[in-house]
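Per your request, structure below.
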């Protein structure tokens, strides 16, 4: 067999190849363009054959070799090609290299390449789908489910592919038996004590007496979240799920350090469109390294996919709260509901609506309250590896009983009503990947309005964290 040496050059013409999201993997396009290809065949004096072709023709030829199972020569062509200024050609080249790795069982290599492509073009459904399949081969079920969910929101997906995606999501749900999460970073706070400052005064028969209110305190610190869950498989549909989580903020002023532990266990039922988990829950909290409160209760978590673009969930909780120091006033129960709906516009952009409804009882009516909250979040994976999420959140709290406070220079009973608005934006870049963790910056502004002047405040918080990449 004659040895073929390929010298490739980039055609000066602006040539666009069909997008990768074509589910035929461009086989038809390769066949149709082959007849129009400008491939020049030359023979040298030593009998060797030289083929000169454009980058587009080289990619088409490599694609045909991949389809024929000739991975060796396809790899030679794809790796000998110089970098191309045409993004579609480059994406097709990297896609074929990933396909070769995937078909040869080199899933780690394929995953790296698919991630590289999605960093530049996050809306490519085909790439996200293939990445999910690689994660399934690696038994990384949570990552596979994440990318399948996004891929299913893409447009122009053939019916048979939609059915395959739904089937693979069902397989992922069946096999998601464990997960571990670990986030850490810096967390400066401009008003950790939620104070307003100023002073308040009362007037009586002896004159006016004033006192200074606490001033906002700035702190620098770090946060840590560490958790995991494990499910014992009882049948194709039934599981026994166990979960534990640690969250802490540690500051340079340790009186504001906050440590929160939680654990849950109970049966979980999964099916092709969702899951239900009924669990017993235990929580423990320390504030300033002093025991603050603990709670026991239960929860019911429900997740359901209405369509391939719309998913929803509902978490119901009932907790019995006990306070270490203020139990004679604050001991009671909390009943809460947290619904959410996610609509995916395509494989890279989505909107999330969330609500929270909470009823807290207490021995003293001054601490019993109703709370309502709502938020609307916008998320998108952008070119160059950026990941953006913006969410405004609003909540209202109405207390049952009066508090004796200073108002209009005299002590008087007031029933407290609060309104909180919070705006947060999160920015990450997937190209800055450190051992599977991606740096993330979260900036948030919070302002509290209240009919009790001393309870109002505003603050900025900034978090620099490392989060697991999916």
């Amino acid at each position: 067999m004659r040895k073929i040496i390929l010298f490739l050059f980039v055609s000066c013409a602006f040539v666009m190849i069909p997008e990768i999201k074509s589910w035929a993997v461009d086989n038809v396009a390769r066949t149709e363009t082959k007849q129009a290809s400008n491939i020049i065949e030359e023979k040298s004096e030593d009998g060797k054959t030289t083929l000169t072709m454009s980058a587009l023709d080289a990619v088409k030829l490599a694609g045909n070799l991949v389809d024929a199972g000739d991975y060796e020569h396809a790899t030679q062509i794809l790796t000998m090609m110089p970098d191309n200024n045409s993004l579609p050609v480059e994406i097709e080249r990297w896609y074929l290299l990933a396909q070769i790795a995937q078909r040869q069982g080199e899933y780690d290599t394929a995953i790296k390449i698919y991630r590289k492509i999605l960093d530049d073009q996050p809306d490519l459904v085909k790439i996200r789908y293939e990445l999910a399949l690689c994660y399934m081969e690696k038994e990384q079920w949570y990552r596979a489910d994440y990318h399948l969910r996004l891929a299913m929101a893409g447009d122009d997906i053939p019916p048979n592919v939609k059915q395959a995606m739904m089937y693979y999501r069902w397989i992922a749900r069946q096999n998601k038996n464990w997960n571990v999460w670990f986030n850490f970073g810096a967390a400066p706070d401009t008003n950790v004590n939620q104070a307003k400052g100023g002073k308040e005064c009362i007037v009586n028969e002896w004159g006016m007496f004033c006192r200074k209110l606490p001033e906002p305190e700035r702190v620098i610190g770090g946060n840590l979240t560490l958790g995991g869950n494990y499910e014992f498989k009882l049948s194709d549909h039934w599981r026994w799920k166990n979960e534990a989580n640690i969250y802490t903020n540690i500051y340079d002023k340790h009186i504001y350090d906050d440590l929160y532990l939680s654990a849950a266990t109970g049966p979980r039922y999964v099916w092709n469109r969702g899951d239900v988990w009924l669990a017993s829950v235990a929580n423990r909290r320390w504030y300033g390294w002093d025991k603050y409160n603990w709670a026991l209760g239960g929860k019911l978590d429900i997740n359901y996919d209405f369509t391939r673009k719309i998913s929803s969930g509902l978490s119901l909780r009932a907790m019995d709260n006990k306070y270490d120091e203020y139990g004679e006033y604050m001991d009671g129960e909390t009943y809460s509901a947290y619904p959410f709906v996610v609509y995916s516009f395509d494989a890279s952009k989505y909107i999330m609506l969330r609500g929270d409804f909470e009823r807290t009882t207490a021995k003293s009516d001054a601490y019993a309250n109703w709370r309502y909250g709502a938020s609307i979040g916008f998320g998108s994976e952008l070119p160059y590896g950026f990941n953006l999420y913006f969410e405004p959140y609003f909540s209202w709290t109405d207390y049952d009983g009066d508090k004796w406070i200073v108002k209009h220079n005299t002590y008087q009973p007031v029933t407290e009503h609060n309104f909180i608005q919070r705006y947060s934006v999160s920015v990450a870049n997937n190209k800055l990947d450190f051992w599977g963790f991606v740096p993330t910056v979260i900036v948030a502004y919070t302002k509290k309005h209240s009919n009790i002047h001393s309870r109002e405040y505003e603050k900025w918080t900034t978090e620099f964290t490392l989060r697991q990449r999916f």
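The chain has three domains: 1-93, 105-176, 190-468.

Regards,
D.
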